[in-house]
Input
Amino acid sequence: LMAIEYKNTQIDVTDTSLTTVYTTPTATSAIVKSIRVVNLDPSNAAIVSLNMVTSAGTSFALDVNRTISAETSDEFMKATADSFHSNPIILEASEALKIQNSAAGQLNVIASIMEVTNDI
Output
């Protein structure tokens, strides 16, 4: 038997450190459907990178240096002609999504995720 749970995870990024958006729980897989990033800064663009980090701590870039204009938002999972973004991201147990804003300012990040847990 498997349990499926739909959830949103929200974080507020206020500095330039690499920040965890979501970590997959033990004995769980996750399907990431949406990663919405809002730049709340009224004057400055955000320069945003997104990484997937394995349970062993190895980081893989999913997107680098995406510019989000002041007071606008972007969907990182949207379909584009030149990217993988129309497909979901699968995370295994203990893998994480991490985000970094290399510019000053504040970001709101909302990720929509489906968790699948093996109940047996």
